[in-house]
Every structure is written in C-alpha cells, then in structure tokens.
Amino acid sequence: MADDIKPRLRVPASAKKGEVIEIKTLITHPMETGQRKDADGKLVPRLIVNSLVVTYNGKPVLNAKLEPAVSANPYLAFFLKVEESGTLKFTWTDDDKQSWSAESKIEVA
After folding, report:
1. How many domains does one find in the chain?
2. What is the pTM of this model?
3. Virtual CA dihedral for 5, 26, 88, 58, nearest 10 degrees?
C-alpha cells in the first residue's frame, strides 16, 4: 500500500511580505475506519492517516489530528501569513507509524 500513497501540495511559488496565502494538500490513502467488514464478515483493521504536521522554516504552523470520520484521500486547506522566504514541510503519519513527507518552497519579495 505504501507505493500507492502520494502527497500532493498546492502552494504559491511566491508571495509578498506579510501576505496571507492559501495552502492546499491532499494525500492518497484509503483511510480504513475499522468498522467495515470484509467478505468473510471479519472487521477490517483501522488504518487511517491520524496526523499532519506542517512546519515553515522549521517552525510549526499546523498540527492536525485526524479521526476515522475523515474520508479517504484526506484534503486539507489552511491559510498562512508569510514574512520571509522559506520551505514548508508536510509530514503525514498513519496508524502503522508509516509517514510520508513533502516540501514546497516559497519566495517572499
């Protein structure tokens, strides 16, 4: 399954100092809630992305805890005020402690 999981980011490449920008992210993940039964009637174990941590130049800007009610391929959007050029780093972690990271640079003028 790990090969199928792909984080996607939509981050502006540039912004003006003090501008509030919108950040969008989506990760492909099946988000199994643990409540569904398989063909044999056994519960399929829970396996969800349970956290997303975002940092900007190493400083935390978002720490989201996700629950089983979040759909497959979770999409999140948030706003960030940028004061300096830097790198946004996104790290998703699931119940099996697998994690995926992606980065995007923003040039502030």
Report:
1. 1
2. 0.89
3. -70
Domain, as residue range, for 46? 2-98
Residues 6+ apart with CB under 8 A from 58: none
Per residue in 91-102, pLDDT tens?
999 999 999 999
Q: Given the DSSP bridges, would you call strands 20-27 and 14-15 parallel, antiparallel or unpaired? A: unpaired
**Is the predicted pLDDT of residue 1 greater than 70, yes or no?**
no
At 3, give phi and psi (nearest 5°): -70, -25
Q: Please give the Cα distance from 108 to 11 (Å, whole number).
A: 13
What's the mean pLDDT in 61-70? 92
CATH number at residue 35: 2.60.40.10
The residue among 4 and 10 whose pLDDT is bigger is 10
